[in-house]
Amino acid sequence: MISVAMITMNEEAAVERVIEDIRNVLAGREYEIVIVDSSRDQTPEIAGRLGARVIRQFPPQGYGRAMARVLKESLGDVVVTLDCDGTYPAAEIPRIADMVLADECDLVNASRLEHRPPSMPWPNYLANWLFAVAGRLLVGVKSTDLHSGMRAYSRELIERVEVDPNGPALPVELLLKPAVVGFRIREIFIPYGERIGETTLNRFDSTVWTFRRILRLAFTRMPSLASQKLETRN
Ligand SMILES: Nc1nc2c(ncn2[C@@H]2O[C@H](COP(=O)(O)OP(=O)(O)OP(=O)(O)O)[C@@H](O)[C@H]2O)c(=O)[nH]1
Ligand SMILES: [Mg+2]
Question: The whole model's pTM is what?
């Protein structure tokens, strides 16, 4: 089964379109849509009416705690995440889910940064570029987009990799940490659209936390997946 996992905070202008796109593209497949919602508006009611399983997290506890929760609540063999704001192409969900289901890899990162998307302001683009270079030089992971919100994760990865849900920039850790311990990462390029509704991104906090997470991974020794598996067998 495919889980499509989203977190939402006041996305009532976008949620209906996003869920309908997901339902259309996954028609005929076995799937669930799981949402952790921290909205004050009608987002949870609309999502529930359209068949999503909605878990309320209120008052809001931040992106990281909501994302960590929705990953834990998802039941699928593969879990696909995307923002609920119309920026990510639902049409790519089957492709990245199938890459994991076919065991081609454990994580697919859908990168927005083959070129600068017109919808991404220059400062964000340059910051993302800098983060990618830092990830490459400091952690040794070759990715063009550490902050993509569109990923497919295998069930095994979600169950084995522990992340720190406190603070912004969790997508950075959700990509780099699995790579460091030895999970197989693949990257594809996707188009990135204009956002419907208001952003929650705080550029300053996000930048500080991106580097904090990169440096933590660069300077902490982590047991590899192979040795962890050996330990569980012994
Ligand atoms: N449940 C919950 N969802 C959140 C919280 N903060 C953000 N979100 C959701 O997380 C997703 C990503 O947030 P965005 O505001 O799109 O941030 P972004 O993608 O970095 O910024 P944009 O490029 O402007 O889209 C959206 O679906 C938000 O509704 C939170 O504290 N709780
Ligand atoms: Mg977004």
Answer: 0.95
